[in-house]
């Protein structure tokens, strides 16, 4: 989302505090792990961040990227001074240079960079109410000049490899596109073909709508029929999951159905290039998102709920530093890991092997992600900002070489947190071993999700 309203929203979430969040939703039911169904290798699909990378090279130390299997960054100099292209040429240069710096950092760690032209243009949510948009009054000359400058700067700076151009962010929100849908579709067609012509093979993504796919969403249905007729099919299909509702299985099913009804292939990369509301960006919600994204093989980038220079810092809430909230200093270092970062580290460093199929609780609030390693099975469990007791059921224990009945010694780790997203956590808490008797080739055990923050990891030998 990423506009000034969002910082209001995060203040609101902070002020309602833990007590209210605890009451917000409850989780119950059973999440299952199908040990006999492999779903391929883990790729840290969820380890991406929207903005969050400082423009000063090497400001956040290497390990904060490498230990989480960092995959994606998405940026375009939003909210930096000068207002972007529509402010002045200097405003354009400030934002392009910021994006270029973030691209270099992303490539240093082997990631892919998603470029945000709408922010470089200046439609970053903080533009004036009379700001101009591409194609106003049917005149595209200003936008054509903008694209010429951008493409020429990308070429001059060798900013092509591992770049995805995200044609326009959230045109379905007036904060980013306060113009008719028809003008957006024309922007899409023009930009797509211009990029193919001037940067052959350039990867693109879209529509990056704020709204998840749905047959009743005319932004989605009209866009899908437009790109079919216009032959402007992006490399990656992208949308956002930042409303605190919906889920990946149903939104991917809706996206496939919209594409199929237009005769389009459904085998492209799906990239949820903004996921997670503020309240979900804690260990348990992070585990929930990891399980959701891995299940449907979608990449994801953590949404960013900060503003101004802080938007360009903190890896979308994964790292903290002194004076993060008051007395903030953009270029200062002193970074530490947050509780959520420890979840991504465990996900990347420890959850190796082969993924196995899992399913969430029927209320969709309890989740489990699971991998079978050489001699250990590892589960990552969390809820979506919900409290309650739910179960994790391990099915087909014999599929990993265990007897059909006996006692399973499960090692539990906790990733605790509070509503202070910047708190320091140096590692998970060892919650010890527990021997669960089981029979019938399956074992169900309870998760006491007594707060909305804690994620759990469970490990057992095979
Ligand atoms: C795609 O749409 C753009 C914008 O309307 C238009 O300029 C272009 O000619 C269209 N291309 C095709 C192949 O229809
Ligand atoms: C901000 O941090 C940088 C880097 O540590 C330092 O050089 C600068 O003096 C700090 N600025 C303020 C206002 O403290
Ligand atoms: C994760 O793996 C590292 C490296 O093998 C190990 O030191 C650490 O104890 C593991 N963490 C947990 C929670 O199992
Ligand atoms: C896995 O367990 C289910 C439910 O107990 C059973 O129907 C299925 O046949 C089992 N699959 C294998 C490969 O054992």
Summarize the structure in words.
This protein has helices at 4-24, 63-66, 89-108, 117-121, 141-156, 181-198, 218-230, 248-260, 283-295, 339-350, and strands at 30-38, 48-50, 72-75, 112-115, 163-166, 203-209, 236-241, 269-275, 299-302, 319-320, 336-337, 354-359, 366-372, 376-383, 388-395, 406-415, 429-438, 442-449, 455-461. It has ten helices and 19 strands. Helix 6 (181-198) runs parallel beside helix 7 and helix 9 runs parallel beside helix 10 (339-350). It folds into two domains: 2-28 and 43-348, TIM Barrel (Alpha-Beta Barrel); 354-461, Golgi alpha-mannosidase II (Immunoglobulin-like, Sandwich). The two termini are 43 Å apart. A nine-stranded mixed beta sheet has the order 17-16-19-14-13-12-1-15-18. An eight-stranded parallel beta barrel has the order 2-3-4-5-6-7-8-9. The radius of gyration is 22 Å and the shape is globular. The chain is α/β, with parallel strands linked by helices. One 2-acetamido-2-deoxy-beta-D-glucopyranose is lined by residues 186, 189-190, 193, 230-232. Keywords: Signal. Residues 1-18 form the signal peptide. This is Glycoside hydrolase family 39 protein.
